[in-house]
Predict the structure.
Amino acid sequence: MQERTTEDVAATLLDIGTRFVAMLTSDVALSIDRIVVSEADRFPELAEIFFEAGRLAVPDPAFAAEQFLTMCQTRVVLRAKLRLPVAAEEAPHVVAAAVRMFLAVYRA
């Protein structure tokens, strides 16, 4: 395996950081933030989950990230790749389940 230089690592981190910020500032992400904030009074448990999601005990972050992203694909991505029907509610259901499972294991 070829060793990475500091420049390679910096470039990779720059790419990840750029994509991450783009994701967090996407219309969808900002809409979710707005919903959570606007509904916090009516649904305090939603606000608590949103806040607590940042407090995780993850001994191997790379593995945890791969695990989460793989769980998010369950029953959706392969079907889509094979051009099989995927119900509109399926992806949100799968992702919500992946979040619950991930937090059940890694919540601090």
About this structure: The CA atoms of residues 17 and 44 lie 30 Å apart. Residues 6-24 form the longest helix (19 residues).
